[in-house]
Amino acid sequence: MINMPHQITINATPEKVYEAITTTEGIKNWWTTDAKVEPEVGSVAEFGFYNRKAVFLMHIDQLEQGKLVEWTAQHDMPRWKGTKIRFELNANDNGDTILNFNHSGWDSMEGGYPMINTTWGSLMYILKNYVEGKNPEVWHQS
Predict the structure, then answer these.
(1) In the predicted model, is pLDDT for residue 137 greater than 80?
(2) How many CB atoms lie within 10 A of CB 66?
């Protein structure tokens, strides 16, 4: 299986980054304004795009406050079903967050993989800007 790793340093505590990736309000400020998230293991988060023409369903597999978030894609988007999205958060010596992101489980690098990889890379910077309070922009308005 093929991975899609990204790493970024965010000038904020891991707890603040964790909140941005585990709450409806947080997600709405960097990924999509059409988001429903309950930060509970076993729940299914819902992210809508293009007036809900695309809806991503993510089973919340793991949550460790300020440290780890892991989802499994459950929707029928081509090649996404069963892939894992993982956010690992670690504080560096300055108290900033090192975010290690990985979208794993891809069967190949063909098709939409390059575009999805580019999108996740861009989203990491939008997340960073949101958490740091610098001109946050949402990647997708519903």
Answers:
(1) no
(2) 15
